Structure formats: C-alpha cells, structure tokens
Amino acid sequence: HMAAGDSREIVIARHLGDEVGYLLTRDHFDLDEPLRVGTEADAGSPMRQALAGRSGGGPALDLRGARVLAHHEPVPGANLGVVAKTDVRQLQRPYRVTGAALVAALALCLAGGALTFTRISMPFVRNMRRAEMATKSIVDNVAEGIATTTADGRITWVNDAFCRMNEYGPRQLI
C-alpha cells in the first residue's frame, strides 16, 4: 500500500510475443490478464531493458510516459523483468517547496531590512536637510559677500551680498 502522492513503484512484466505484458503495476495486478503494451514505444524503456537481460538504472520514461528515476533487473530463467522507479517530479518536489520558501524568506528579509534602514536613516536625512537649509539661509543673508570657486578659480556659487558688491547677477558671475 502506498501513501497518497507517493510515486514509488515496483513493476513486474514479461514478454508476450511483440508486446510487454505488465503483471504488476500501481494500477494493475492480474497474473492471468497482463496489461499489454507494444514494444515499439519509447515509454517503458527500463522494462524493455530488463526483459532484454540488461541491468541498469537512471532517468527514463516509464509506461505512462512520465520522467522517472528507475532501476531495472532481469529475472533469469523466468522471462521476467523488474523495475523499481520513482517519479522525478516527486523527487524534485521537496527541493522546489524548500526553494520557494527560501525565496519568500529572502524577500521578507530584504523588505524588512529596507524598512528598517529607511526608519533608521530618515531622521538623520531630515536633520541633515534642516541643517543644510539653516546654513544656506545664514550664508545667503549675511552682509559679507561669499563665493565658492573651483581649484582653478572658476566661480561656482555666490550669495546675494557678493552679487550686490560686484553689481552683477548670479548668472553673470557663475
């Protein structure tokens, strides 16, 4: 008996002329009336390998055409093959669920970090803006002329008193 959603399966089959007769599958168990499948299809290749007398395993398509991880073995002297398989999607499911949970957790951490950074830094930014506006107001309204220049002497900013002293507007001086 398999649990719901469990795709592990052991399949037993035998040659029936040009067909493979599945005696035991998840959905079929009848030794007298096997489930007949033609041998020309790609599906069920692990069983065809087992019935050809070869042992092995790896990824393959099963009887339903689903991607599986399978191991196949012949049963010598009985004209039978045995395949143990697991659906690849079921194998991948825990990793996909874990990956989705990790992405969600990362998104929450990033959002929380951004919110925390914003809440912590905004008071500093507001204080810096206030200090900048206060400094600009003082510099703009002092009686002395003030100008800033580059290293080569080009004027980049002037206050109103500097303009009045030189009898030019800021655009003409800069």
Q: Which sequence of strands runs across the widest sheet?
A: 3-2-1-6-5-4
The number of distinct helices, counting runs of at least 4 residues, comes to 4
Q: Which geometry do the CA atoms define?
A: rod-shaped
Helix content: 40-55%
Mean residue pLDDT:
85
**Uncertain spans, ≥5 residues at pLDDT below 50?**
none
Q: Please give the alpha-carbon distance between the first and last residues.
A: 88 Å
Number of strands: 8
- Class inferred from helices and paired strands: alpha+beta
Radius of gyration: 40 Å
Q: What is shown here, in short?
A:
The chain is an alpha+beta fold and 174 residues long. It is built from four helices and eight strands; from the N terminus they run βββαβββαββαα.
Please give a structural write-up.
The protein is α+β, with helices and mostly antiparallel strands and 174 residues long. The protein is 41% helix and 28% strand. The chain is built from four helices and eight strands, in the order βββαβββαββαα. The protein has helices at 45-51, 88-141, 160-166, 170-173, and strands at residues 9-16, 19-24, 35-38, 56-61, 67-75, 80-87, 147-149, 155-158. The longest helix is centred in the middle third of the chain and has 54 residues, at 88-141. It is rod-shaped and about 115 Å long.
Q: Helices, strands, pairings?
A:
Layout: E1 9-16, E2 19-24, E3 35-38, H1 45-51, E4 56-61, E5 67-75, E6 80-87, H2 88-141, E7 147-149, E8 155-158, H3 160-166, H4 170-173
Antiparallel strand pairs: 1-2, 1-6, 2-3, 4-5, 5-6, 7-8
